[in-house]
Amino acid sequence: MDALLIHSGELVNVFLDDHPYPFKVNPQFKAWVPVTQVPNCWLLVDGVNKPKLWFYLPVDYWHNVEPLPTSFWTEEIDVIALPKADGIGSQLPAARGNIGYIGPVPERALGLGIAADKINPKGVIDYLHYYRAYKTDYELACMREAQKSAVNGHRAAYEAFQSGMSEFDINQAYLTATGHRDTDVPYSNIVALNEHASVLHYTKLDHRAPAEMRSFLLDAGAEYNGYAADLTRTWAAHRR
């Protein structure tokens, strides 16, 4: 295989509506560059030349447009503005028969002339998954920053619990402390009071606090440069 074409992903509209579901970037894309909020980006890696990042930069007054990145990592990547999502075809090498596609939209890869057997090839995916277990110093630093943010959130959530707040309000306290929106956390927060902790993936968030607070389980994380923290804690209520 001559190169990998790694796709950040695309927005998907809600059925019969004109607004999209929250965007979640391809994890294999954000492992290369800390671009987590921008769809329609492409990264070409051939192991010889400097990787190329086509960064989606439309002219758009309907939506927020992220500026072209300039950061600690952009010296290592050729960053190219991509004004139109469907303009990537004219930017790629003409010979694409031996380029692999890694991403969530196989039909887009087929439209670009990527061979079907080169779309998310199992051998490549397995290799990438295996070596994600090995973390560089940079990755470990990002994970530590995510942990610090999550710890701040857990402390704020505990204080909210002890003050008698509802699950919904406890979650709001957590998000405020971490600086996240509920669509930005790495997974849906589990904020479970009393018997709700017995539901493995409890994400309902009651708006009313129970008459008696007995226990609190919190499973909630945070993200930094695309790397996640995943913390779970359980507390008993203080008896008055």
From TrEMBL:
It comes from the Bacteria. GO terms for biological process: proteolysis. The gene is pepQ_2. One of its GO terms (molecular function) is metal ion binding. This is Xaa-Pro dipeptidase PepQ. Its cofactor is Mn(2+). Residues 141-236 form the Peptidase M24 domain. Residues 1-130 form the Xaa-Pro dipeptidase N-terminal domain. InterPro entries: Creatin/AminoP/Spt16_N, Creatinase/aminopeptidase-like, PepQ_N, Pept_M24, X-Pro_dipept-like. GO terms for cellular component: cytosol.
